[in-house]
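<context>
A single protein, sequence plus fold
<sample>
Here is the protein in question:
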Amino acid sequence: MSSQFRESNPNWRGGRTVASNGYVLLRVGVGHHLANVTGYAYEHRIVAEEKLGRRLLSGEMIHHIDGNKENNDPSNIKVVTATQHRAEHRTRQRGLKEPGEPNVTIECACGCGERFQRFDRHGRPRRFISGHNPIASPLQDRVLHILSSGARKRGEIAKEAQATLCSVRCALTRLKQANLIRSLGGGFWEIRS
């Protein structure tokens, strides 16, 4: 039985392969400080270290400027922190808070006069104080219409409203929070009088 190793194997790609995550792996041997257990290391990390002239520090990440994970040209490689990397991939369309952007105080869009910080603790933008969002819910309207003829069980409401039990449960909770309905126990609900 003849051994087909490296160059003699028809599947040999010169020690270069693309991993399932889209990044290029290079065969560097198991003794290399960036290598995994099979002796491969990410090419972009190797290129970054060569560009810096030192080993990468803990917490340093590599950003591909053009977004192409296979383009490991040194001019396309940028060493950044995790925060900077998240910011590089953040899209302005989502309106998330940018690093260093001030968290200004705004007024609730419902007109109640309450004031709060524009971004929540995760950097997501807000326009309303929790619970003040005036978005209409057709399901809540259907639930109120169904309950106008008397107390009903949650399952009956879901069937009549042609909605999932989960969505009806959510609608019932919101209507209860708005003090429009009340629970009678045993899964029965009625309009609050």
